[in-house]
Amino acid sequence: MTFIVPRTARDLHRRYGDEDVCRAALIELRWGDGFQCPVCGADASGQIATRNLLACRSCQRQFSPTSGTLLHGSRLPLSDWFTAAWALTTTPGLNSITLARQLGINQKSAWSALGRLRSAMGGSLAAQLSGVVEADEAFFGRREHQNTVDVLAEAREHGRVRMGVVAGQTMVILTPFIAARVEPGATIRTDGWKGYNGLKAAGFSHQRIVHRPGWAERGERSTPYADEAISAAKRWLLATYNKPPIASNLDAYLTEFCFRREYREPGAAFEALLRALVTPR
Known about the structure:
By secondary structure, this protein is α/β, with parallel strands linked by helices.
């Protein structure tokens, strides 16, 4: 079958309310570009139509689209995963209480499902940032337990963003964080903070813009795109959860924010999320 992005919630349930149809759609998302056996690496397969499985013609092993993925071992029906992915990508802020009501499950199960979905979002953000990338740090969380977050934003309109909780603002922490998320040779734009002194040695072009006295009054900013992303993330967190998230959950929420920024169109976000759910781990 050809995977079709639904246009509405009614369209979603009409197209993907059946388990066999959902399984076939996931097969298309996972192996649409060609099958490769996870066991022997062979690229020849046959489909067992009655079970919506693929069988390797070399080693004869059979595989479901969820084998070795975030959906492996899930007790939720596939149609519920489609509904959850649709709800998360079409709702500005979806919490476990709301998802539990929509799926008719308990909140603990809904919380677990959201955890897998946010993990999949992280997998879909594996591509490194490029061009000119701004880097800045910010503090998130409750006043008595604030967390340091490093923020990377491509310096262009609708540029991609990466955020993550870091253990500090030193060079030995910030340099590897950036190197893992930005293409080698890119230009990193920062303020004058010394924690970014290791960027040139790491293979980046470093553009440092140091604040001059009175910069705030003049409205000058070294990293305007990163600053805007920080403000937007804080507003989104507050609007969604009504209070700063606890430290153990902050990274997952920041991943969701970055995913939403990158996949602004709900249909594209829905497809990207499902594809990430069935990408082998």
